[in-house]
């Protein structure tokens, strides 16, 4: 990857560039941001004694691959970024670009992650700050990789010397690394409060206009106030046009504009370190555009007449509002004339791709290593295949046949109380108010029975945005019972196979269909022990709760975890009343199920959304 980029720079005659050999980082510098256990793991993973265990060890981590060259590569990558950062700080180089692999921004203090072994930019940043003779007191880190720089964020979470800025696909917390870390409400802590800035795109397809808007209305005003001594850029190019994974559309011109704006700070002392990117041509062309800016070889050529998406302005406004107590320059509301200049709303579906390099905007990359080859197929396409006699045949995993014979009651408390809305999870499609369609289940048979019950659990509304409904909170059920509470539930009798498909659609957008997430062992356990089962690592409704039995059939629901409830109580996760479209769907379900009149249903929702937890 680095070789192709270097070849392009040579072909373009970049004689102003000095090519340096890679140099391994010393453990003492890596130890400033990583634990001893982490260092020992990365140092030894390529030794022969790990030959038989290397794959098993990698499997313990999130999207990590090890081989016999991993240790050396990790040390060379971290050392190369550190070395050029020191040279730029000393004035020996005006600027630098470290074309390294593996990348680093996902690596956390004690955990490799997302192809990243050592956090290269964090190692170099810490080195510059700790070497006092360099005179570096404030560092701006800009992470424009399409994925959130979770590792870098955590390493400088409380450090006011580092202003960390990450612009990334977030997709309401479902895009890799699929955690709350990338939310705009994550602003740092203690003395570092206000020095962590996340600009989380709601979906893919963002391009030059969107990123430049984030620069002009968030990053640049704050950077002026912060006045960094040097700038480190986690330069991933998986948001580039043509990248098969990122789903965004930044052109080489767009990257050059973003970088040119940053050249106005720190006397142009900029160190770029390669992060992600999965299309060699996209990487090479984008790097070339950036290097031309760094050497100030020629004026920028190109233009962009596109407008930012409506969602872009919404995100920028939210970021500015959250950070305005720390950066008064952001207190001013953007003019309506400015925000009215916007592209049409993004239609999030699996059929709106304009070309082979676009990825559905609602796809979650839980495992980067598999994502390029393993993109979601709609359930309807998995049902049938063609055999050698041109006959239609059923294609499904063995577990499906087993679970299709087991019935459960799926107890719903939110929009799924409306039957037409619930059937979207079974048969596919969407109803009024929904912003994206559901894929549907493999078995599209309607529920065998429908009935209503009340349970002694607390209904409440939380979060403030969803991909399906847009702004506004959605319903959650407190996983613990309380005799003083009462929630209305619509129960659908469906198969355990269908329950698994609904569970996946509620929590993730990319499915591993090779095995169920809630199998017969889980069902036996939850019924025997009476304790909820957290079936997925991520997802708002990953906690399956057993609510008893009806006619000998178990009643199951899916909701948040107890730790999520505590996050709602503390304010880490927002409590938020539902938007009108979502609330109207709940009302239709409650009225259609003969539980309430329309006025009573609205009062029930109002009470649930206003009473404190």
TrEMBL record:
Gene3D superfamilies linked: Gamma-glutamyl cyclotransferase-like (3.10.490.10), Histone deacetylase domain (3.40.800.20)
Compartment(s) where it occurs, according to its Swiss-Prot or TrEMBL record: Nucleus
This protein's GO CC annotations: cytoplasm; histone deacetylase complex
Ranges for domain Histone deacetylase: 15-294
Cofactor: Zn(2+)
EC identifiers of the protein: 3.5.1.98
Keywords: Chromatin regulator, Hydrolase, Metal-binding, Nucleus, Repressor, Transcription, Transcription regulation, Zinc
Superkingdom to which the source organism belongs: Eukaryota
Enzyme type, top EC level: hydrolase
Family in the record: Belongs to the histone deacetylase family. HD type 2 subfamily.
Protein name from the UniProt record: histone deacetylase
Biological classification of the source: Eukaryota, Viridiplantae, Streptophyta, Embryophyta, Tracheophyta
């Amino acid at each position: 990857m680095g070789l192709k980029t270097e070849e392009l720079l040579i072909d373009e005659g970049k004689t102003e560039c000095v090519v340096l050999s890679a140099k391994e980082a010393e453990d003492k510098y890596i130890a400033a941001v990583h634990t001893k256990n982490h260092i020992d793991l990365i140092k030894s993973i390529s030794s022969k004694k790990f030959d038989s265990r290397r794959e098993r060890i990698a499997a313990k981590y999130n999207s990590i691959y090890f081989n016999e060259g991993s240790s050396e590569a990790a040390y060379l990558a971290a050392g190369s970024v550190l070395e050029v950062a020191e040279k730029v700080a000393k004035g020996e180089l005006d600027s630098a670009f470290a074309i390294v692999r593996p990348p680093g921004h996902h690596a956390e203090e004690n955990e490799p992650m997302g192809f990243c072994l050592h956090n290269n930019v964090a190692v170099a940043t810490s080195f510059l700050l700790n070497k006092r003779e360099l005179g570096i007191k404030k560092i701006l880190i800009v992470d424009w990789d399409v994925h959130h720089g979770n590792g870098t964020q955590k390493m400088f979470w409380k450090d006011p010397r580092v202003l960390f800025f990450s612009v990334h696909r977030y997709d309401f917390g479902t895009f890799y690394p699929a955690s709350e870390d990338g939310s705009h409400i994550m602003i740092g802590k203690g003395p570092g409060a206000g020095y962590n800035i996340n600009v989380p795109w709601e979906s893919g397809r963002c391009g030059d206009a969107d990123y430049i808007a984030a620069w002009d209305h968030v990053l640049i005003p704050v950077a002026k106030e912060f006045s960094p001594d040097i700038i480190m850029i986690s330069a991933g190019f998986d948001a580039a046009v043509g990248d098969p994974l990122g789903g965004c559309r930044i052109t080489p011109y767009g990257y050059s504009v973003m970088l040119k704006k940053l050249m106005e700070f720190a006397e142009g002392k900029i160190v770029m370190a390669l992060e992600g990117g999965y299309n060699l041509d996209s990487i090479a062309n984008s790097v070339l555009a950036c290097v031309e800016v760094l050497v100030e070889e020629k004026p920028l050529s190109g233009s962009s007449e596109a407008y930012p998406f409506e969602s872009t302005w919404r995100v920028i406004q939210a970021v500015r509002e959250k950070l305005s107590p720390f950066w008064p320059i952001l207190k001013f509301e953007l003019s309506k004339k400015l925000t009215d200049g916007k592209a049409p709303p993004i239609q999030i579906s699996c059929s709106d791709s304009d070309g082979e390099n676009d990825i559905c905007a609602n796809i979650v990359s839980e495992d980067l290593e598999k994502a390029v080859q393993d993109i979601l197929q709609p359930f309807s396409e998995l049902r049938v295949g063609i055999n050698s006699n041109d006959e239609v045949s059923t294609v499904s995993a063995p577990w499906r046949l087993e679970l299709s014979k087991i019935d459960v009651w799926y107890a719903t408390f939110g929009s799924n109380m409306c039957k037409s809305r619930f059937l979207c999870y079974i048969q596919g499609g969407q109803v009024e108010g929904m912003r994206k369609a559901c894929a549907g289940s493999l078995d599209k048979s309607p529920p065998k029975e429908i009935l209503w019950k009340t349970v002694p659990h607390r209904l409440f509304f939380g979060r403030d945005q969803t991909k399906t409904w847009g702004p506004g909170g959605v319903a959650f059920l407190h996983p613990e019972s309380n005799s003083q509470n009462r929630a209305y539930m619509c129960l659908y009798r469906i198969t355990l196979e269908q329950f698994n498909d609904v569970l996946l659609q509620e929590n993730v957008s990319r499915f591993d269909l090779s095995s169920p997430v809630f199998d017969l062992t889980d069902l036996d356990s939850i019924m025997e022990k009476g304790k909820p089962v957290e079936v997925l690592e991520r997802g708002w409704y990953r906690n399956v709760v057993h609510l008893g039995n009806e006619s000998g059939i178990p009643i199951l629901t899916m909701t948040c975890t107890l730790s999520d409830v505590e996050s709602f109580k503390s304010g880490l996760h927002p409590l938020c009343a539902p938007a009108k479209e979502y609330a109207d769907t709940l009302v239709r379900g409650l009225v259609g199920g003969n539980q309430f009149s329309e006025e009573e249903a609205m009062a029930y929702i109002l009470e649930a959304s206003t009473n404190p937890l």
